[in-house]
Automatic annotation (TrEMBL):
Homodimer. Keywords: Aminoacyl-tRNA synthetase, ATP-binding, Cytoplasm, Ligase, Nucleotide-binding, Protein biosynthesis, RNA-binding. It comes from Aeromicrobium tamlense. This is Tyrosine--tRNA ligase. L-tyrosine binds at residues 36, 169, 173. A motif ('HIGH' region) lies at residues 41-50. A motif ('KMSKS' region) lies at residues 229-233. It is found in: Cytoplasm. One of its GO terms (biological process) is tyrosyl-tRNA aminoacylation. The gene is tyrS. CDD domains: S4, TyrRS_core. Residues 351-409 form the RNA-binding S4 domain. It catalyses: tRNA(Tyr) + L-tyrosine + ATP = L-tyrosyl-tRNA(Tyr) + AMP + diphosphate + H(+).
Length: 418
């Protein structure tokens, strides 16, 4: 028996808020339905938070429903208000470029053929031709100011100040839902829980303007074990664009998932059956050191975002850096990405190993570096080194310039010899 998509979303912990889950279930059963999720081009790439929304859209499509993927050519010019302060507006040319980049990214996660094929839409198409007077008369009249002031993000900014531009963002996003309801028959909008006020704003606008009942559903904020937002690493945001974050770095961000959260991430970010995930987590609890759950998570997500070839390269690099494979088998691009992610620095040819260990962050002093070498815990290209006077030369270079350094079993870095 096939699991209902609503039950699957609930089992995976993917429903934080919903307007009327029973009514939505009934409409899907009578469907299929058309639904949408939107992305504002406020950066040149989508990130891991956006990925959760794309995968949720994919789950609904696999259940037979039709997705609309909105790229916000107009809302991206404004920016959803943040509690931290006013957004910096990007130029129209920059936003237009980011729209096209993101359009290409979202196209990889949904299917475009068949009866329920996806459609990518741009809200600039209906916002740009509208006059200010029409916007105020047709949209603005449905939004009581007292309710807009009560929104959490607005209330938090009243003392420090919020521009009318950002204050009005909810009107633009709500109008998107109204337009997609009219043009495509959309009856569900999904998004993150931080968008709940905007999602319900659209539901209310359609009720007021059309007298129709539609739905909204939000996914929870994805967090680490300490409650902080997931999706940030020491080097920055987990981007989907390989030019902003290498596939190896993307893979490593999932390998490093905390034991207490990896089961949650497997349910939310992969298409593995829940029963299979539960079995994998039972195995993980018996042998957490093997990190089988993290390795499966990293493989599934890297394949989904970057493809099987990049996943194999990342797996090979991850093993080779720690002595479980041949460094010579790694393509230079993969080795370079892995070492840069590990903190590699440039050093001149002939640099003493002691100084290279310090420069790469594997030792904090010459005495600590010499001690590591003397204790048998220093490695150059996975070969143990016992000579504290060793200098890095041509014989140590991989692909003509790279050297992998390791201290003990787990601390890896490297240098690029120039």
């Amino acid at each position: 028996m096939t699991t209902h998509v609503i039950d699957d979303l609930q089992a995976r912990g993917l429903i934080a808020h919903s307007t009327d889950l029973d009514a939505l279930r009934a409409e899907i059963d009578a469907g299929p339905i058309t639904y949408y999720v939107g992305f504002d081009p406020t950066a040149p790439s989508l990130h891991v938070g956006n990925l959760l929304q794309l995968l949720t859209a994919r789950r609904l499509q696999l259940a037979g429903n039709r997705p609309l993927i909105l790229v916000g050519g107009s809302t991206g010019l404004i920016g959803d208000p943040k509690e931290s302060g006013e957004r910096i507006m990007n130029s129209k040319e920059t936003v237009a470029d980011w729209v096209e980049r993101i359009r290409g990214q979202v196209s990889r996660f949904v299917e475009f053929g068949g009866d329920n094929g996806a459609t990518v839409v741009n809200n600039l198409d209906w916002t740009q031709p509208m006059s200010v007077l029409d916007f105020l008369r047709d949209i603005g009249k449905h939004f009581p100011v007292n309710r807009m002031l009560a929104r959490d993000v607005v209330a938090s900014r009243l003392e420090s100040g919020i521009s009318y531009t950002e204050f009005s963002y909810v009107l633009l996003q709500s109008m998107d839902y109204l337009e997609l309801f009219r043009r495509h028959g959309a009856v569900l909008q999904t998004g993150g829980s931080d968008q709940w006020g905007n999602l319900t704003g659209g539901v209310e606008l359609i009720r007021r303007a059309e007298g129709a009942k539609v739905h909204a559903l939000s996914t929870p904020l994805i967090t680490k074990a300490d409650g902080t937002k997931f999706g940030k690493t020491e080097s920055g945001t987990i981007w989907l664009d390989p030019e902003l974050m290498s596939p190896y770095a993307f893979y490593q961000s999932w390998i490093q998932a905390e034991d207490s959260k990896v089961g949650e991430y497997l349910k939310q970010f992969t298409f593995l059956p829940v029963e299979e995930i539960d079995a994998l987590m039972a195995e993980h609890s018996e042998r957490p050191g093997a990190r089988a759950a993290q390795r499966r998570l990293a493989a599934e997500l890297t394949t989904l975002v970057h493809g099987e070839d990049e996943t194999r390269a990342a797996e090979l690099a991850s093993g080779a850096l720690f002595g479980r494979g041949d460094l010579g088998d790694l393509p230079e691009s993969t080795l370079a990405a892995a070492l840069r992610e590990a903190g590699a620095v440039e050093v001149p040819s002939g640099t003493p190993l002691v100084e290279a260990l310090i420069s790469s962050g594997l030792a904090d002093s010459k005495s600590a570096a010499r001690r590591a070498i003397g204790d048998g815990g220093a490695y150059v290209n996975n070969q143990r080194v016992d000579d504290p006077e060793l200098e890095l030369g041509a014989e140590h270079l991989l692909h003509g310039s790279w050297v992998v350094l390791r201290k003990g079993k787990r601390s890896v870095s490297g240098v690029q010899v120039v």
